Amino acid sequence: MDDLTVIRVAIEDHVAVVTMDNPPVNAQDRRFNEEVALVFDRLSEMDEVRCAVLTGAGRVFSAGADIKARAAMAAERRPGDGLQHLRRARECYHSVYECRKPVIAAINGPALGAGLALAASCDILVCSENAVLGLPEVDVGLLGGGRHAMRLFGHSLTRRMMLTGYRVPGPELYRLGVVEACVPQERLMEVAMDLARQVASKSPVATRLAKHGLNAIEFSSLRDGYRFEQELTAELGRYEDSREAMRAFLEKRPPVFKGR
């Protein structure tokens, strides 16, 4: 992916490591939003990728919206520019949420505002002891991120974050069950990659349908959600990988998945 400028992608053993690299704090401007969306749309259609890890270069995961870029845009604003910016931003996050491959967030430092939105769009979260999640918009004349925070936090804490700018530190994220692990910075990618390899070892058909199902039923009733899952189970049964998983279980051997 040599056409990218602020996002780096490395693929090995069916795992794509996506690194946000927009110094100094991986702030999100137009180029950033467009490249993140492009990368995850590409990964969705790459058979050699079964899982992705999203992290930030340097000491920050992503500090959120690029305030300087927003101010410059406001000064030169033409009709439709603001709406286009909002569309790019939300599609950036949705590209992660809707990616056909599971995405693990390796939160290496502050994930603030739009950075929190990116982290919350991932499927599994791990963080370093240096990480914090926060919504600083109230202090910089902006709003947003609350709906993404609601995916991770309860009623009172979400409102505390949005109304005061409170930042939740890594160890507290682990205590609350928001992240699967909170480890020293030097171990973060090791832990994230171990999880990614576990996911990548499963049938890519099964993990794709599982993620699709989880996204679809997130706000469904119990009856509608479970019915949808049953339909996906029936769909999975038509794939060779499903039959291979059952044979391997009965024959007491590791399965060999082909993604079909």
TrEMBL record:
Signal peptide: none annotated. InterPro entries: ClpP/crotonase-like_dom_sf, Enoyl-CoA_hydra/iso. This is Enoyl-CoA hydratase/isomerase family protein. Gene3D superfamilies: 2-enoyl-CoA Hydratase, Chain A, domain 1. It comes from the Bacteria. Transmembrane segments: none annotated. CDD domains: crotonase-like.
